[in-house]
Amino acid sequence: MPPTHLEFRSDNCGRAAPELIEALVQANVGSVLGYGGDEITKQLNAKFSTLFEQPVQVFPVPTGTGANALALAAVGTPFGAVYCSPEAHINTSECNATSFFGGGLKVTPVSGVDGKIDPIAFEVAILNSGKGQAHKNQPEAVNLVQATDMGAVYSVSEVKAISTIAHANGLVVHMDGARFANALDTLGCSPAELTSKAGVDLLSFGVTKNGGLLTDAIVVFNPAVAKNISFHLRRAGMIWSKMRFASAQVLAYVADDLWLRLAKQSNTAALAIAHKIEKLEGVKLLAPVQANELFVQMNPKAIDALIADGVLFYRRGTNLFRLVCRWDTTQNEIAQLIELIDRHRLKI
Description:
The chain is α/β, with parallel strands linked by helices. It is about 40% helix and about 15% strand.
């Protein structure tokens, strides 16, 4: 039977990569100490230290929201402010978790384009923040989403520019890397070049959206800024009891560049769609397609017709919708989607 729908709602709607399922099976042997005292978990710091070309600390956590909120809570104070883009996940889609776990840490949007923070606007925001005034939230951190929530990618130089401003003003740099692998595939740089070497202090390392099963992770490059992160994680219930199963997934994810291969598959699918539809009359891409997301503008009736024909996506307005490609998006799904967009694009 052919599929009754086309799945483009999110990359977290896709399957877990078979390699990660196998890693769970291999880890499911015997009894070991819980809460990270097992040998599999102990491999994480060494593996990621090699991956990122410096000593790091790795903390597997159940969710990306948990990774973001607890990473920022660990570096902020209840009277602090964390700057982000207006579209950032911590600002639009995490139910104010950063403020909750940060005891009042204020999420403060800064303007930019394509989901990025504009460096000039960021610097102005800090200058106008009332630093040192007891009446004002105090600048403490900045959050960069990579790839952004509009599907764009910060270049290494763009990350460095934000980091330079942040560190000059005593702020910590946090990267929300829910789609970090997708950004790396696009840029072709090393993980270290896009993070610690560019001034990032800690990273929410995405696994789930790119073939993961039940875990993401926090990677700390600068332990001085997050000395109490273990306490924040434990208090929030974000430390796995049977940690070996979370750690096994993360290790399998980065083994033999699996994570990059999976990201390339979803990026390639998104680009294939973009190249076909961007030339069609009545169809407009709102932002550059630099990872695995597309933001598409069409006539509202054309969008209604796509929904009626079983295309699954998230509508972002009367004439705007988002498409997200998974690591397991098929060529057949791509072809069907393009055919339906072409069929309905001029409906009025």
